[in-house]
Fold these 2 entries.
Entry 1:
Amino acid sequence: MTTTTEIAEFVIETEFDDLSGETVDELKKRVLDSIGIAVGAMGEDPVEAVRATVEEMNGEGCTLWGGGAASPPDATMLNTAYVRYLDYMDSFLAPGETPHPSDNIAAIIAAGEYEDSSGKDLLTAIGIAYEVQAELAWNAPVRDRGWDHVTHTVISATAGAAKLLGLGSEEIRSAIGIAGTAHNALRVTRTGGISEWKGIASANAARNGVYSAMLAKSGVEGPTNLFEGQKGWKQIVSGDFEVDFSPGERVHDVMTKKYVAETYAQSAVEGIIELAEGEDIDPEDVDSIHLDTFAGAKLIIGGGEGSRYEVETKAQADHSLPYMLAAALIDREMTNAQYDPERIQRDDVQELLRTVDVAEDDELTDRFETGEMPAIIEITMADGTTHRVEKDDFEGHPNNSMSWEQIETKFERMTEARYDHSRRERIVDTILQLENHDAADLVALLD
């Protein structure tokens, strides 16, 4: 039976030398990808509202990416919101849950800056957080029980922060107990009419994780039997489960997003762009679009948790398969530009999205659960001609993972409007050699 003590022991025992060279390389990719996405989100209204709230607290101790200072929890709140808001972050593909382990990175960098941690310490803590989040998602999914996946994030962020804050075993158990008792999130965030909180919820979870760890460090006692205790997490939130921790190896099962779109849309978006370009499809001649997909995609972005045809905001658009497929077919790309309010409201995409039919296919669900991300798209033209494409996965899926060079290209694209070439080059080089730097070297480049 998995216990709170087991997680505490994993946090304490895992060191940088336990991470394989391949794992260290993948963790560095996660850091570069996340920082690039965060920079690309700067200036967006919802995250700037978070900044205004954080700045009102007048805290200090950690760097706010984009300039300013705040306490470790508040810096975590804003910086994680930057990483998460665009829906361009990474994802761990478990059969019953799809969390975003990059939600932990800003929390760990904040804790590391506060504690003057080394780059090796940062990478170790990130590896721990990725492992905890992935193992919980794989073995203790909570989506079907009505909980949001950031319920896992608050525990993984606590574990990573606890490592850098130097907590002992009992303190870690208390920190995890505080986090997992007080901060379980409801799935309503991602059902029905979706609000902007969808893109901010994980920042709140990460912030609470750092705060829980800091409380425990200061001597606040929490329930030390969170998982196994009477009326504890297993009884109320997840059901019984077992985990099998390795030193950060789960990072190899994490995907990188090629498109600014919800995780489960990646293969379908890639497929429809390939069809549009390869067949030179005129959107005005399209009669209908049909997508066969797996159960999770149908549930989350295909209409299983509320209509995905009423699309007025970015938060609704990036969780609507009909919108994403229509926009991708018309524009032959899926970037931030496709979520501009004027683009969302335009008649061409609003009319085309209503021709999109999304169907769940049991065989595709089986394929998803054995490691693919399948999608079958058929576009029927006004003259009856049908164009079809079938995808097993996409560029960025663990079966077709991105190289460092590809992630660096994504980073360049997301940051070139804010940072000059010299600054971008220094950020890339610092992350590439992070084991030879410390947290302060990295955050000094993110103003």
Entry 2:
Amino acid sequence: MSAGPESSHVSSLGKGDSLHQQVLASFPLCDMTEEDLTQNPQFCKLLATLAHHVDQTGLTVPLKTELEKAEQKLHSQRRHWLRSESLYRGLQEMIQDHCVRKHHTTVPPDQNMFYETVEKCLLVAQCVRQLDPSSSINQDQPSVLGLNPQQVMELMPPEKNVQRMKQSLPRELEKHLKKKCLSLLSYYQPEWENESDGLKSSKLSHLSAQLDKEKKRAESLKQTCRENTVLLQRQTQLYLSELIKCIQLLQSLILDHRLKVQTDLDRKKLDYFEGKCELVLQKIKSEMVEIQLDTYTTEAVSAHRKIRQKLESELKACQVEKQSLELKLASFEILGKEFEALAEEYCRLRQEIEMKNWALKEFTQYNEK
């Protein structure tokens, strides 16, 4: 029984690709793609059904209505606060302008009295507001400096001055606000600065509508920018997924191609290096032959040959002598340790004989001199 309404909702949204597009349009803040909806059809149906009960931000219809009422109430209170705040700021600016003007030019006494009265009234009103506890503050809280609003109200200017100030205030405030509006107009459209006052006043009456129009245009551009951003994110995700697939396909093709040609490539590299090595060896041999030809001439070769023959003959004689000495040494070693002591004694005696012969020779040479 419950499947009937859901299917009717889904069919009302569309089928296939159109359903996916409408679901994505109904939930722009969700990070989804058409591929996700295709792989999860039941989830797609759930979102299609849910789109009839919530808006693009995810709020339900009753909650959206309550939110709009709260926003309207907030806007109304904000307008009321802005009206009071702008009036207060305007009066403060008028007082500041008067103080600056008073230091540069002579100001009439009645104008001085007007601005002093306005300043005192604002100061007293501000103090009364600070001293007057609201409903959210404990009534038993001690007052500032022990003062109450009635005591501060006694500091108000005389009633005559206040009444005179109230009569002149709308006119002076209108002048000040008109001056600010003209400054705003000159800032918004600098080319209108040299226009006449009447033309400026006419254009000033249309400035609010024009600013409101541009504000709506800016909000429309922001909304378009947000939509384009969401669309760009989806296209980027789609592009990246397709790019990853292409890269994977390219990697597989490269790997297959590399495996096929790697053997031939290695064999060709091996043949190349073998040929290059052989060439280097032949070059080394040729260089060695050239060095030998430059170093050894015919005369040098014959001389070296004679030297070699002489050295070989001397080597043979030394080897024969070595063999004879080794035989004698072997015969001596047969006699044992007793002969070793006799040999040492013999060596000692020979050394003494040589020393005495040397001394005798030196002595004979000395006597001859």
